[in-house]
Amino acid sequence: MAKALVGHLAAMSDRRLLDELTYLRSQVGRLTEELARVRAERDAALALDRAFDEISDDIGPLPMPVEESATSLR
Predict the structure, then answer these.
(1) pLDDT, mean of residues 42-70
(2) At 67, which helix (H) or strand (E)?
(3) What distance in Å separates the CA atoms of residue 70 and residue 48, rounded to the nearest whole number?
């Protein structure tokens, strides 16, 4: 009887390990997808930043706006 009980407990332990392994694999898959999404967003933001830098280099510095208080003193 004791051997049957021990075998039953080992089977429960194996089942819990299998459940945990399944859960952890699903979490790894979800996190891998999220990482790919975040990297794609980062790459898009970097490309936009580079494009903005190229455009701003072509335009050159923008003139500084004149403050109203400076024009009223003249």
Answers:
(1) 82
(2) none
(3) 36
